[in-house]
Design goal:
It is found in: Cell membrane. It is a multi-pass membrane protein. This is histidine kinase. It comes from Kribbella deserti. It contains nine helices and twelve strands. The protein is α+β, with helices and mostly antiparallel strands and about 425 residues long. It folds into three domains: about 130 residues, no CATH class; about 80 residues; about 120 residues, Heat Shock Protein 90 (2-Layer Sandwich). A five-stranded antiparallel β-sheet has the order 2-1-5-4-3, sandwiched between helices. Strands 7-9-10-12-11 form a five-stranded mixed β-sheet, covered by helices on one side. A two-stranded antiparallel sheet has the order 6-8. Strand 4 and strand 5 form a beta hairpin.
């Protein structure tokens, strides 16, 4: 799943902060645990030593004992907390003083002589719960501080990401306006230095595109002037010819050349007129051209069936190109079918498509897209949009179907 800048920064900052805090908390926990153990050992040792001092000073008196302390008297007598006479007791009774870890916690042993022949074993326990109490409390506080720092780092990353997102969106909006043909689009540099650089480059690109289009417009005008000057001279020469047939033929040639020059100039200025991503409503153009051809249809006794949706159907063609395509398909019907032949025109929404079907013999095989100039134009225009063109003549009629590619969205541009 794709993540935005804010999510990625939050994830990176949160992960980095978490690793850093763990690198601090884990050693801190180990140190605290070690310190707690050392304190417990010292506490247990002090307890047994204190009792030992009292018993040494007053052998006949049993002093009050600290919590968790036991005095094993000669015989089976026990003073204080009940405790078993286990292996640790046996070892202590031999005169050893030591600290050991049991299921109860840390246990300290020492031995003192009571009289000349009797030994007394002193045992003191620091429970595991008491041993870990301070560690748990400190680690809890450290954990809360770590969590607060983690949340703060994520919030700071989100704040930084918000600024970056705002700069990126402004940059993307300017690029989108430029791609849609708004050559006045400019981006105000903001955010990090890289975004400043990108905004300046985008503004420079918009300026260069404007200059290139201006140069193209000037070159097209110059081309038209240079071509029309000799054509005008040719027309003047043709009109000066006294032979009527030759004068008519040369005048027709001059008119054809003039029309071709106009078409070349018109085509060269298409990008200036349309912008980068043209989009035209197929339903509106089909309706407009059918209204235009309906006059000729009434004169020739043709019935037309319209199957047009009520919603706009945008196709990635300039209006003039789309009108030319519709005119080619309608002209094919009027040219290659006898008077009185009906036809149907339909528009589909998804995918965008235009279908012209007639009830006559249709065009001959020589008018297929491989040879017919008009149908070649239709094929070229639909292919340019990413669509396709089908022309199927049959004994009962002809079907021409132009399927168009989608109009580029803002994300695709």
């Amino acid at each position: 799943m794709k993540r935005g800048i804010r999510a990625q920064l939050g994830l990176v900052m949160g992960t980095t902060s978490l690793i850093t805090l763990l690198c601090f908390l884990l050693p801190a926990a180990l140190v605290l645990d070690r310190e707690a153990e050392q304190r417990a050992i010292a506490t247990a040792s002090l307890r047994v030593q204190a009792v030992a001092v009292l018993l040494t000073a007053q052998p006949d008196v049993l002093p009050p004992l600290p919590a968790g302390t036991t005095v094993f008297l000669p015989g089976d007598k026990i003073h204080g907390r009940p405790a078993p006479r286990d292996d640790a007791f046996v070892l202590a009774s031999r005169g050893q003083a030591f600290v050991t870890r049991t299921s109860e916690g840390l246990v300290a042993f020492t031995t003192v002589m009571r009289g000349t022949t009797q030994s007394v074993v002193i045992r003191s326990v620091v429970p595991a719960a008491e041993l870990r109490a301070d560690v748990t409390s400190v680690l809890t506080r450290l954990g809360l501080v770590a969590f607060a720092l983690l949340v703060l780092s994520v919030l700071l990353a989100d704040r930084l990401g918000r600024r970056l997102v705002a700069s990126a969106r402004a940059l993307g909006a300017g690029a989108n306006r430029l791609s849609r043909g708004d050559l006045d689009a400019r981006v105000t540099p903001s955010g990090p230095i890289e975004f400043h650089w990108a905004a300046q480059e985008l503004n420079g690109l918009a300026g260069r595109i404007s200059r290139l289009l201006a140069d193209q417009r000037a070159e097209s005008a110059d081309l038209a002037h240079r071509l029309r000057t000799p054509l005008t001279a040719l027309r003047v020469e043709a009109e000066s010819i006294s032979h009527p047939a030759e004068r008519t033929r040369l005048s027709a040639v001059a008119d054809t050349l003039t029309a071709a020059v106009d078409e070349v100039v018109h085509a060269s200025l298409r990008s200036v007129r349309e912008g980068a991503n043209p989009a035209t409503d197929l339903v509106e153009v089909a309706t407009s051209r059918l209204d235009f051809w309906s006059v000729l249809g009434e004169d020739t006794g043709r019935s037309v069936t319209r199957d047009l949706p009520s919603v706009p159907v945008l196709v990635p063609l300039a209006r003039e190109d789309l009108e030319s395509l519709v005119d080619v398909l309608l002209d094919n019907v009027f040219t290659h079918t006898p008077a009185g032949t009906g036809f149907q025109v339909g528009v589909e929404v998804d995918p965008p498509a235009l279908t012209v079907r007639d009830d006559g013999g249709g065009a001959s095989s020589s008018a297929r897209p491989s040879t017919g100039l008009g149908l070649l134009l239709a094929d070229r225009l639909t292919t340019r949009t990413g669509g396709s063109f089908e022309f199927v003549p049959t004994p009962s009629g002809t079907t021409a179907r132009a399927t168009f590619g989608p109009v580029p969205t803002a994300a695709e541009t």
